[in-house]
Amino acid sequence: MAPVDSIARKLTDATTSYRTAPHNIEAEQALLGAILVNNEAFYRVSDFLESQHFYEPIHQQIYELASQLIRAGKVASPVTLKTFMPAEFEISGLNASQYLARLAAEATTVINAADYGRTINDLAIRRNLIRIGESMVNVAFDAPVDFAPREQIEDAERHLYELAETGRYGGGFQRFAQALAVAIDMTAKAKERDTKLSGIATGFIKLDEMMGGLQKSDLIVLAGRPGMGKTALATNIAYYVASAWQGQTRADGQIEAVAGGRVGFFSLEMSAEQLATRIISEQTEIPSSEMRRGQISDTQFDVIYSAMREMQDAPLYIDETGGLSVAQLAARARRLKRQRGLDLMIIDYIQLLQGSSRRALEGRVQEVTEITTSLKALAKELDIPIIALSQLSRQVESREDKRPQLSDLRESGSIEQDADVVMFVYREEYYLKNREPHQLDAKGNLRPEHVDWEKKYSDARGKAEVIIEKQRHGPTGPVQLHFDGRFTRFSNLADDERLPVRTGS
After folding, report:
1. Under the phi-then-psi rule, with left for phi > 0, alpha for psi from -120 to 50, and beta for the rest, what region is 190?
2. In the chain, what are the domains?
3. What's the pTM?
4. What are the tens digits of pLDDT across the range 88-120?
5. In angstroms, what CA-CA distances link 225 with 91, 295, 402, 459?
């Protein structure tokens, strides 16, 4: 049996270990008073401070009422606010009018408002950290059998990321008026930009015209058979966006893109060195095959070195880890956005990602369904476009018309369902090159079949189609680009070049 003093010590430790959540009522009162005395104080904190950041519930109510009045163009003062306070209001023996007057009397100055607001915000973050920490401890003690420790870590990291983003995500319902304001702001910014695009420009004029650029929160699937140039197109877009990056600092201290963007490239198939070689080849017009074999002159090496110096500051980040699960990918993307910023993410490619072990046991179709659903959710969470490359099934090869269709998406219909945009890369030149008929007949005469083939091949040579087969917020149809296989480079075609007539469904 434990000694009495030992039991007493444990009881004392348990009593003294209880602590109230961190808060500062005086700072809350001083800031609210400043807002009621001079509404300009509200604009000093409104970019980062929300009503739920206050510890005292009545202070949450006062801040929310004041913000509604100020945003409606009205004056928020003790006189105007008391009308909206509950009749039964009482705190420390004071009614609504008396308490509001006391807040105004104890106000801080407008100059100090931002500092007081940061203090309140920091304390709210600390309280949320405590909540997340307590949840982590409780889950670790009582975790279900099917909730592996690795998944617990990823879940905790997701909650910490959301907290780091100051509650920007998962905020529940919002007023339609707020969504309207965001939509109008997006339109106004698109109007002001030289590109006239609401999203991130890809560098391909016709493609941008049809899509309005790469839109935030969109999951864009870029699919094609091997040899069509999926990775080349994704790499071209990645470098164009990163090289065009220009940022500006917002009022809350965050840096947002005004042109281009910071790009995260998950290369599950190729190494970072291979991607870098492709980009160098594209920019310098020196074939990557010659670079790998060292068959370059001193002049070409100087060109490569000069291009490298210009390219090295582009905010393009490559993760070459193979065999990633979608949860691991999401955790790394959140970390990249937090540490360096992230405006566009590219994944090469979906079929190389893994789902959870539970979904994997249910079959590959269910696993891919989980992957695409998770990628769409991640695009919304991070508020960025995600381009996910995808393979197509072999049934394309068995058709006379090799142009891909939505039904060709490999392994799961969820890819088509979850994607906001589905694009196919198609190069007629690739198939024609492998179907060249014999040039001469048995008598040595030129065969008509070869003449027809030569004309088709000449028309298709150096051309590629990006076929937008699905788009939630815009038109569908083909966009024709130029493709130079020597440098794995796509580029714009002249306006006067026409698209071939598309036949079939």
Report:
1. alpha
2. 25-142 (1.10.860.10), 194-427+462-492 (3.40.50.300)
3. 0.63
4. 777 777 888 888 888 888 888 888 888 899 899
5. 70, 30, 10, 21
